Amino acid sequence: MLLTALLWLLAALALAGLAVVGFFVFKTWRIVAWVERTMPPAGKFVDIKGNRIHYVDVGEGPPIVFLHGLGAQLHHFTHPLFKVFGPGYRLIALDRPGSGYSTRARGSTGRLPEQADIICAFMEKLGLEKPVIVGHSLGGSVALAIAVEHPEAISGLVLLAALTHKEVDLRPEFKALFVSSPLKRFVLAHTVSAPAGLKYGMKTMALIFAPHPPPENYMTENGGYIGLRPSHYYASATDFAVIEMDLPRLSERYSEIKVPSGLLFGGVDPIIRLEVQGTPVKQKIEGLDLEIAENLGHMPQFIGPEQVAAFVRRIAERAFAGRVSA
After folding, report:
1. Which of 7, 76, 103, 286 is the most buried if burial means most Cβ atoms within 10 Å?
2. What angle is formed at CA 212 by the lines to CA 207 and CA 214, rounded to 5 degrees?
3. Does residue 157 sit in helix, strand or coil?
């Protein structure tokens, strides 16, 4: 009788567990359906090595390609920066593989060299002749991987609050995103990540935008809610888990970068440190234009878009000498 009671108890617990999982799966499905209905893709799609890349392409002139950071998407450039950039350049922002509305090929690792290869294939597919690459935060890591491993593919490099070296101490706020198990990432992505993001999203944004408040329309006009989609969470957690595999090796090769380069770093950036991520790059990349924006934090393109646009244009003028249209 005792054994029977234990079996019934275990069965009840299993059913309760399945009910909880089912509830979160259903809730995630509802959230995703709402996000995709209210914030559909803003650009075009192209297939690259099994990845379906979503991108926005505006303007005419020498090309500049923009790579967003961890957990972000192309709206981190299109809304705050493209509006003030001005004429004379072709501006292309894309959702990195797995992020936003881009999909990541089956079996992909998310490692920096892999992402660099995909971005270079994307540029070739669009017929972009040696563009300038702009990378923000972790997108800066991908941009650096391109500059190191595909130097012939670009004319210049612009880093915005970029992650350039491995951080020894992980901020407590980001530990929840470090999920080493692919299976666990998948389960979290399809159960609790979207409801948790919906509940705590603006609190996270307050940290990332500090010491400035995030834009009031960040979750809508700037695409913040798109990050609730399971594929987006899974790609972001993967990027975060594997970046340390390549960043130390790449950082030893920064001296090989010879194209015109610049790094804009916020003087009050609460996410990454100037002495770890900024100053060492100045010592490694010959001729690097390092600009410290004293009043900007980790999201300079939102808080100081005019300053960022002017900085990108300055590097682009050096990189495209003789090619810039009036």
Report:
1. 76
2. 70
3. strand
